[in-house]
Known about the structure:
There is one protein chain. The protein has a 9-stranded mixed β-sheet. Strand 8 and strand 9 form a beta hairpin. Helix 7 packs across helix 8. It is built from 8 helices and 17 strands. It is globular and about 60 Å long. The chain is an alpha/beta fold. It starts with about 25 loop residues before the first strand and ends in an 11-residue tail after the last strand. Helices cover about 20% and strands about 30% of the residues. The model has no long low-confidence stretch (mean pLDDT about 95).
Amino acid sequence: MQRRDFYFELPDELIAYQPCPERDASRLLVMGEQGGVEHRQFREILDLLNPGDLLVFNNTRVIPARLFAAKETGGRVEILIERCVDDTHALAHVRSSKSPKPGSALQLAADEQGEPGSESVLVTGRQDALFELEFAKPILEVLDEWGHMPLPPYIQREDVAEDRERYQTVYASRAGAVAAPTAGLHFTDALIDALREKGVQTAFVTLHVGAGTFQPVRVDNILEHKMHAEYIEVDESVCQQVRDTRARGGRVIAVGTTSVRSLESASQSGEIAPFMGDSEIFIYPGYRFKSVDGLITNFHLPESTLMMLISAFAGRDQVMAAYAEAVAQQYRFFSYGDAMFICPEAKLSPSEL
């Protein structure tokens, strides 16, 4: 299977650079059996889920992981934290005209052109493309003071104060991601409460999204692609909720591809079991899903591993047709864009395409 099998044309004007004024007012393309579609508003997800269904959310919290600094020589540096190893140590991408050497100090600045301040970060070594950094005080404190929200590279603007709240789900609780689980951005507290009142169950997994989620597939044959690793936690209580849902005939609906990757990483033995650690699971057409019955997701980049994942779930031809319809109907794409609900058993008319 080739990378080009997942390519589609996307006009630049359909990339969402700003969030929708109201989280649940975004549009929702509902994709059912044989690729049929309906056009809805996201808040109508309330009508599409049934009592006894289980919604699985990713509760990771995006950290303001983008830092600006200056080397001792005066050269400017941009830092993107990839992973917090512990309270004061991290692995990071460092971009500069010349790579900083181990032992060098980087003086933090408020922005790209700002004067360096008194806070510094020590470069202690390297692990392949990532730099090992040591902070003088807890990383999250430093990021809260100096950090910027790590907006995706296709959002070509500087972050603003609003992004600290909007590039974050309302249920985010576990700090550690450098990109948002974007399908969850459409949910409000009121919508989640209404779903629970209807009898829809909720569960929370953790997948700390890394910067690798934006890395393009560079090989033509997708089987040669090396998937990036991300840290995942799925505890026994979630596993039991999945088992109970299946036993009562309910559906397990993953909110976002990160929730899919979490549940499926925990199900590689054939049955879901607790999982804690790194996963490099790569889901592409031909994969047999073990724990997920439905998927709420945003629209993804052409030729990305996420396009491959949803194509595995709903069928490549059907997904590509649905994306063509989304482009024709001028849906908003990517992190701050609109959403899809992929529900394979829903009998929607293909003639609506």
